[in-house]
Amino acid sequence: MHVAIFILVVLGFVAISGALVRLVRVPLPVLQIAIGAALAWPARGLHVEIDPELFLLVFIPPLLFSDAATAPKRELLALRGPILDLAIGLVFFTIVGFGYALHWLVPSIPLVVAFALAAVLSPTDAVAVSSIVDRNVVPARLIHILEGESLLNDASGLVMFRFAVAAALTGSFSLGAASLSFLYAVAAGILAGVVALIVAAKTLQLLNRIGGVPAEAQVLVMILIPFIAYLGAEHAGASGILAAVTAGMLTSGSGIFRHLGVSARMQTMSLWTTLSFVFNGALFILLGLQLPDIIRKVPPELSSRHWLVEPVATVLILTLCLIGLRFLWIWVGDIAQRLAARFGKRKAEPFGLRVRLAGSVAGVRGAITLAGILSLPLAMPDGSPFPARDIVIFLAAGVIICSLTIASLALPKIARGLVEPGEDPGAAEERRARVGAANAAIARIEIIANDASEGEAADARLAVADSIVAGYRRRIAASDEADEARAEAREAGRLELELRFAAIEAERTAVRAMLRSGEINDHTAQALFAEITLTEALLKGRQRRK
Length: 546
Prior knowledge:
Blueprint: H1 2-24, H2 28-40, H3 52-70, H4 73-78, H5 80-105, H6 111-121, H7 126-132, H8 140-170, H9 175-210, H10 215-235, H11 240-254, H12 262-296, H13 309-343, H14 353-361, H15 367-374, H16 389-415, H17 425-450, H18 456-478, H19 483-517, H20 522-545
Helix pairs in contact: 1-2, 1-12, 2-12, 3-10, 3-11, 3-12, 3-15, 5-6, 5-8, 5-13, 6-8, 6-16, 8-9, 8-11, 9-10, 9-11, 10-11, 10-12, 13-14, 13-16, 14-16, 15-16, 17-18, 18-19, 19-20
């Protein structure tokens, strides 16, 4: 009962945070972490012990799968060079640079444990990045690089974290063995994601052959894909995170949606949107719930002189160190890209100073870091405590908060003016696609109408075809390059939507009246309300695009 009440309380505050974020105007993850910390700060507040393995299984696969499924594959493929450079190269650079810096700043932390903390701090958080980075002020190219990096560097960072922990426990480290294990974890993780997707597709095909299977069963298969991929990879000793990301990246291009009915497709999209919001919010609230206990247990090694100043200063210095290492790597990568373009006689697209700084500040840490560091063993094989465990947990939590805070405050100022005003390239591309699709639909309808035989049926078909074609022509006019034509078409579209919304409200009122009077029962009313809501959702989508 206590667990159920706790879950309901967390879900309730997730919903509240969705409303509060419009009032306080801070990034949603920061607000949710603050809510969690406020709930846990009193002595009798909410307290929960996180099982890192369970935490990773429940939250990370579905969230990364959802982010990967909606990520722009074309842009990520075009930017694969800088993305892999950050997702792999920067991870190793951070482990070495940050590890030595941490050992120098806090000598009580053994070097191998410092490398472990550096490894778990190297992945950026995909959820936090997408929540903090404003797509209206940050260049699209930088956004795509940050998204791709955050999807892939979790695997490399956590694999290296496990190697560092193993080295701390055994006292030995083999570069050759670690390299082979890393390659196996990556290759097997990708394979597990592909296999999970194939299994899901075959299952949906089987359900279609059976016939009459509820749409909810098909939706459940889609929901299980990231968990199957993650568990399969972890069982094989590979990267479960990379498996979930791979499955998500390949979902849209695999054709798996062909095996879903219309109702199942709509339910899947709606459910994933809701789950992403709920899981994101719950994840950051749980993160906030851990902070008061971690802060109360400030290790004495960090507070020998000043109880508050020294730990805060240490966390701030380490966060700035991470940002500095990231800036240096991006800068060197820009130089290398410029030189490669010069030798290859092609045009280079280097980042400017402010874009490099924005990319450095936007590399925030989050749930993966906390879950990884909490999974540190409590004791060594001989029974002695794991060295500096409390210190690195405190520092990891502090860096998470500090990186989120710095990004939230500094990124809008750094990025201001980086994007020139004008039509969004994505909006222009969508407009061209709408015109092309509408022209194809008109051509097909005209062919069908002209092939009809003579008579009343043919006349009726032509009349219906003219009506449908008129709607497509209005869509084309609304996307016309000429401002005057577009303005006229949009005004006509606005009036049409206004009348349609009024008609929908009248329909809904009439159905409610019939339900109250007993003319129809609840099942009939629910079916009618569902149809009305679907129509309204489609119209609202049209309204937003205008």
